[in-house]
Amino acid sequence: MSLTSTYIPLNLHKPSEPFAATVTANIPLTPNSSEDVRHISLSVKGSQLKWLEGQSLGVIPPGQDANDKPHRLRLYSIASSRTGEDPQELTVAFCVKRVVYQNEAGEEVRGVASNLLCDAQPGDTIRVCGPVGKHFLMPGDAQTPILMIATGTGIAPFRGFIRTRAEQAAVGPAFLVFGVRTSQDLLYADELRAFTARPDHHVQLAISREQTNAQGGRMYVGDRLTELTDILWPLLTQGGLHVYQCGMKGMETGVEAAFAAIAQASGNDWPALLKQLRQEKRWLVDTY
Fold it and tell me: The pTM is what?
């Protein structure tokens, strides 16, 4: 069964000609957490936009930066399937964390695009462009096994993956390993539970401040991967497993270390295998 069309939509609205999307929903996902994460839904009805799961859209904030130049666009992973949140209205969603931090001078800095989106109310307009990206797409065959590894808002593209696979009658094994700090930081919990209704769909959580690994330390995504060795390794080496990683860049080290340990235990050359996976486009990374 084919999932990914041979046609990959790219830059249907360029940054020089963005589309004024209308906010349809702004839903707090972490009301009991110290971090503010929102599900932002936008109507792009009337635009030329189409997209595939794993692509991103650009958001162009209004106004100018400190150098009196127009704000540059920020890319956000699409958190919807290709049919959108509401296919009849053509809506697309982002999963956005509000960025607020102190610089070296002790001054508060607020992320321009993230705060624009997190403060947006239904009816507001947001300028968007794109889509962009063709390296993080789902396998063309829906029966190809996939492993999705996410931290925080890195869950966004995988929500699109999950929603698309839920619409398919026959799909292969799918695994999601999702890392968050606390239970209050877990995103889309109800959808993740629904995803596991199929026996070949699995979700493993790594809640670092609440769970411990086998050594008694904090539980991270790499630790969960180690626990899945017996299932994942045969799929990786013989079953055509595609591995996707999305989230904070620091996650890559733990993920590679976990697979390197698995390879060593089974007498395999991990650097050589990793090189092969990258060449075959089965090791796909979108971190920031």
Answer: 0.94
